[in-house]
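About this split. The held-out portion is used to measure sequence recovery: a designer receives only the structure tokens and must propose an amino acid at every position. Recovery is the fraction of positions where the proposal matches the reference. Here is one held-out target exactly as it appears in the evaluation file.
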């Protein structure tokens, strides 16, 4: 073997096996010169975070602001009162409360449309829209608030659709909408039990549905 190869082999054999696989340890001088770890600029001091929280609006301030925009006038008739006048019950009672009522003349009432109403399971599953016929039914029930009370009706009378004309739907009604309806008497023939009304419904101040209605008042049932 050549003498240079022999010397190299001897030198390699003299190095401990473990040191061949360990990273080099920096010298003391190198460690002293290493930069110290600094706080990340993204981590703001706790005092700064507290100041930022103090600048935020109070809890509930945003909800209060929007709630004022939804505020309705004090109702003249609420659910319990409406049930005493109308024969309808869930899921077909479509008047939530009455805001204004003039006996024998007119009524203003609201219907709050919600996603958990049964008609939306089929109309339509992927795009819930209140059926137009139910909008007309809701308006007819507001008409019933007027027609089923004195001076137009006697206790125990019922009313039925006699006809509906000139109906126009202006926009789709979806969950979250509040339908504000007004029904006004245009003619009444007590002898024949025929009542005609005109109605309009609004959502967010924009007309959504309108039409002319004819109702027939049935005579009160005689108690046996």
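Reference sequence for scoring:
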């Amino acid at each position: 073997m050549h003498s240079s190869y022999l010397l190299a082999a001897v030198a390699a054999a003299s190095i401990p096996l473990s040191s061949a696989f360990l990273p080099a340890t920096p010298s003391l001088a190198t460690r002293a010169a290493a930069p110290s770890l600094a706080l990340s600029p993204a981590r703001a001091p706790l005092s700064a975070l507290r100041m930022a929280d103090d600048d935020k609006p109070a809890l509930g301030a945003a909800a209060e602001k929007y709630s004022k925009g939804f505020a309705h006038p004090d109702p003249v008739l609420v659910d319990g009162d409406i049930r005493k006048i109308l024969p309808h019950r869930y899921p077909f009672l479509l008047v939530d409360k009455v805001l204004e009522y003039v006996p024998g003349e007119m009524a203003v009432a609201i219907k709050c449309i919600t996603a958990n109403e049964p008609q939306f399971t089929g109309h339509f599953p992927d795009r819930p829209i209140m059926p137009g016929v139910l909008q007309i039914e809701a308006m007819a029930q507001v008409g019933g608030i007027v027609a089923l009370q004195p001076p137009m009706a006697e206790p125990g009378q019922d009313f039925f659709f006699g006809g509906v004309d000139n109906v126009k739907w202006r926009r789709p009604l979806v969950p979250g909408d509040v339908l504000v309806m007004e029904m006004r008497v245009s003619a009444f023939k007590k002898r024949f039990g025929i009542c005609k009304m005109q109605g309009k419904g609004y959502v967010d101040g924009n007309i959504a549905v309108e039409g002319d209605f004819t109702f027939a008042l049935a005579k009160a049932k005689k108690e046996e």
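Annotator remark: Strands lie at 97-102, 106-112, 158-169, 178-189, 194-203, 206-218.
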